[in-house]
Request: fold
Amino acid sequence: TQLLEQSPQFLSIQEGENLTVYCNSSSVFSSLQWYRQEPGEGPVLLVTVVTGGEVKKLKRLTFQFGDARKDSSLHITAAQPGDTGLYLCAGGNAGGTSYGKLTFGQGTILTVHP
Amino acid sequence: SQTIHQWPATLVQPVGSPLSLECTVEGTSNPNLYWYRQAAGRGLQLLFYSVGIGQISSEVPQNLSASRPQDRQFILSSKKLLLSDSGFYLCAWSFDGQGISYGYTFGSGTRLTVV
Reply:
């Protein structure tokens, strides 16, 4: 069974601060995705990384996939109240029996105070 | 563009009553479809997935079942609900490139409360 451990579980910061969320596993994944979810809604895909060492930027968000494809990080620069939400990482595997199934981390609840 | 519809948004059902949650996808064909359950706004647990009409795989033993009567329709059911079935249910679809998942599109979810 593959597991993804996210840390921290909770993050409460002031507007303008920087933060990093980590996603770690002892297993190798073919792809790693990050989602953001607001209360009462479904998660929304932010990014997918598939190459070890890959770095992707989405405005103030920077995503990195570890060289060994076992871990990932999400860094937010100058956080804003609109960044508040639940951030989920999810890992997937290639192969005939994977069928696109994902393993999700337990999530990081981010609160950005104005 | 692809869209996914999930309903109802909220549901309160008594213990022992039946359940039917429906999910439909538009703008794509032969998608992989998934039902997840989310407890207390945290991580997601995969319940069922389907790679085609009539093809259902269950990930965890449970009181629920799933069906895919049409290519873009996925239904989650129960004959008799338990209190432990309460939770936030999410339907999702994905397109795989050579078996790699490039990301899910989720429905807006159903908040089920069993009383």
